[in-house]
Design goal:
2 copies of one chain form a homodimer. Chain A is mainly alpha-helical. Chain A has 2 domains: 48 residues, Homeodomain-like (Arc Repressor Mutant, subunit A, Orthogonal Bundle); 121 residues, Orthogonal Bundle (Tetracycline Repressor, domain 2). Chain A has 9 helices and no strands. In chain A, α4 packs antiparallel against α5, α4 runs parallel beside α7 and α5 runs antiparallel to α9. At the A-B interface, α8 and α9 of A face α8 and α9 of B. The first copy, chain A, binds a DNA duplex through α1, α2 and α3.
Chain lengths: 176, 176
DNA sequence: GTGCAAACGGAGAAGTTCTCCGTATTATAG
DNA sequence: CTATAATACGGAGAACTTCTCCGTTTGCAC
């Protein structure tokens, strides 16, 4: 890869990170290119679709989130590790508006599959929690994600979202 | 209101219903105007914002949904009436992509507040269910909506969404 | 009928995404 | 160190969007 190409690519990702943080994942690609100091053509050559750009931006964040899972699994009993990780994921998802949508909507892209990485990470935690009898055995990983991203979509407020997650974990029916 | 104005207004709503059903709530307003056989200016005069147009489109549906609540309340015990209505709402919300977003995002508009109508309807069912001890007493109406619309956002498939709702009702933890 | 208030609709301004292609830059071979 | 070929650049512009303005047409009350 040529030096100027690499440099431009990095500048576009940096600009995209900033602009998406400000305006969400629907931010204008022209604006991102302008801030990166490149022409629109350059942006589109490096990232033919918006999805690929978003995937590049979020790659680092997702990897951080998944790395945390191992620490949690080592430090807590399986059931608690899972719920703690779900809360962590919820927090990450809320940090940038649209991360949730991005993660669920974006398929495998350019040699990095956010979704698959998250799924295998969550899958390990879930299986362990189920083996320990802490979580209902018929629960699927996909369902976990869908509930979390659904909650994240419903409110931007972290305490509020955490409350919704608790409700979901415990159920809406009255305890008796 | 002049006859031609009324006629055009109705045609725009009819066209919007069709186009939104096909393309979701982000459908092009130009396309809606074209199909209604009016100019863009006419559409914008009747509905200055997209929100007002969407509110008009969904008004009828929401009223139908809320009317069903009374029938349910009369026919079933409070707890079952609530869960049945939640399933009905989920179904309605899934029927048109974006109804969920529309209902939650759109505030009071043009003398009709989708959100308030839904809230008071659901509030009645919820209070009754709580009084009967079927639902946890700390649950808020808003939370109910947020969970439902979150689920609807997570998947367009009704059986799948219904399963997520069941999970939420019963909780993710293992029964023991 | 006739007049005027009201509504119409299209042109167009300003924004978007995305493409094409002539120009400029870079790496490399001699 | 220079010449060349491959590569990347970036701006112009096409096709779309939302939304506004205003000259023209229409319906209704008198």
């Amino acid at each position: 890869m040529r030096a100027d190409a690499r440099r431009n690519r990095d500048q576009v990702i940096a600009a995209a990170t900033a602009v998406i943080a400000e305006e969400g994942p629907d931010a204008s690609l022209n604006e991102i290119a302008r801030r990166a100091g490149v022409g629109p053509g350059t942006l589109y050559r490096h990232f033919p679709t918006r999805r690929e750009l978003i995937a590049a931006v979020f790659r680092e964040r997702v990897e951080t989130l998944c790395a945390g899972a191992d620490r949690l699994a080592a430090a807590s009993p399986p059931g608690e590790a899972l719920t703690a990780w779900m809360r962590a994921m919820l927090k990450h998802v809320l940090t940038d508006r649209g991360l949730a949508t991005a993660m669920m909507d974006i398929g495998p892209v350019a040699g990095f599959d956010c979704h698959a990485l998250l799924r295998s990470t969550a899958g390990r935690l879930l299986t362990a929690a189920q083996a320990a009898g802490a979580v209902r055995p018929d629960l699927q990983v996909e369902e976990l994600f869908q509930l979390i991203t659904g909650i994240a979509h419903a409110t931007p407020d972290l305490p509020h979202a955490t409350r919704l997650l608790s409700l979901t974990l415990e159920g809406l029916h009255a305890p008796h």
